[in-house]
Amino acid sequence: MSKVLVKSAWGSDDPTKAAFPFLHANALAEAGHEVQIFLLGEAVSLMRDPVANAVVPVGWPPWPKLCEPL
Fold first, then answer.
1. What is the C-alpha separation between 30 and 53, in angstroms, rounded?
2. Residue 40's closest CA among 70, 4, 11?
3. Domain locations in the chain?
4. pLDDT means per 10 residues in the chain (70 residues)?
5. CA–CA separation, 53 vs 38, rounded Å?
6. Rounded to an integer, what is the distance from CA 67 to the centroid of its chain?
7. Sign of the C-alpha dihedral computed for residues 18, 22, 25 and 26 taken in this order
């Protein structure tokens, strides 16, 4: 399988867009690919627990659920 790097700069100001790289990475990993996520700019704030716990993308589970290992 392939090695994939997913990059994102979307942060808590747009939780739905911020969720896309994690949703895509989970789908790719589930398909057997090796995936890494590279966060920059506003997206880095998502790694702080208070921010992550407050982010709820429209139509998806709360942020901490998106980041759980497969």
1. 24
2. 11
3. 3-66
4. 95 92 92 96 93 88 72
5. 20
6. 6
7. negative
